[in-house]
Design a protein that fits this description.
- This protein is mostly helical.
- The protein has 2 domains: about 120 residues, no CATH class; about 80 residues.
- The protein is about 75% helix and about 0% strand.
- It has 11 helices and no strands.
- Helix 8 runs antiparallel to helix 10 and helix 9 packs antiparallel against helix 10.
- The longest helix has about 35 residues.
- The radius of gyration is 29 Å and the shape is flat.
- About 5% of the residues are buried.
């Protein structure tokens, strides 16, 4: 099992097998008890940094001794509160799930099947089909084609010859690459901007770009959360 805090840094396929949300029997356990312990023991860092080895070991041992005692004293309250929380959630969520099942005509078997179907889909999606990748790339290439006629190009040439030469070289490269993709896809007529095929795969290209950005954002958020967890070390060296 991967802890809930770290789990979202893993890809969705991994989460389906190892995230606590998908593992039967985990209940409300987030799998991050070690992080709770570390967040408390991190405060020892600044106070033991300049002491002797003996006193450092002594302070660490005393810290965890008192930590164990405090947790043991509060254990009954901890169990009672969590038991009440579970009963409340079971009552609330059971009602909500029943309403969803009735509205969508679902059964408990359907939920398990959804999980299996998602796993199968992600396993088969290790790489996009070649045809889809080429069509998406084809639309991206079309979006790079400069819009304008020869008169505009000639006018630009007179104003900035170097810029036009660079643009023309890019245009030639784009047209060559476009023709290569059209050959792969057996496209006889150039897709027009705004056409059905163009719009379909343009949306897929934008969605692909969005998913990549979303994955990067999720990783950055997790990294930032890790940095925030280190704030208790801010007194080191003082």
């Amino acid at each position: 099992m991967v802890g809930a805090f770290h789990g979202h840094a893993h890809n969705q396929r991994c989460q389906l097998d190892w995230h606590p949300m998908y593992i039967e029997g985990t209940g409300l356990t987030e799998g991050e008890r070690c992080e709770h312990i570390f967040s408390s023991s991190n405060n020892l860092a600044w106070s033991t940094r300049h002491v002797s080895t003996f006193h450092r070991h002594q302070m660490i041992e005393e810290h965890f001794t008192f930590w164990d005692q405090d947790k043991y004293v509060a254990l009954s309250i901890f169990l009672r509160n969590h038991y009440r929380e579970v009963l409340t959630l079971i009552h609330k969520l059971s009602t909500e799930v029943s309403a969803v099942k009735q509205a969508l005509n679902l059964t408990d078997t359907n939920f398990a099947q959804f999980h299996t179907d998602e796993r199968s889909y992600l396993e088969s999606l290790k790489e996009q089909p070649l045809n889809d990748r080429l069509q998406i790339h084809y639309v991206q290439v079309l979006m790079c084609v400069p819009v304008g006629d020869l008169n505009q190009i000639n006018a630009t040439l007179s104003q900035a010859q170097i810029h036009v030469n660079t643009t023309y070289a890019k245009l030639q490269h784009t047209e060559t690459f476009t023709a290569h993709i059209e050959g792969w896809l057996r496209i006889e007529e150039w897709w027009t901007i705004g056409g059905n095929e163009y719009n379909k795969y343009r949306d897929k290209a934008l969605l692909q770009k969005y998913c990549v950005a979303l994955d990067e954002l999720e990783h950055l958020v997790v990294m930032h959360l890790f940095e925030l967890s280190k704030l208790s070390l801010s007194l080191i060296g003082k």
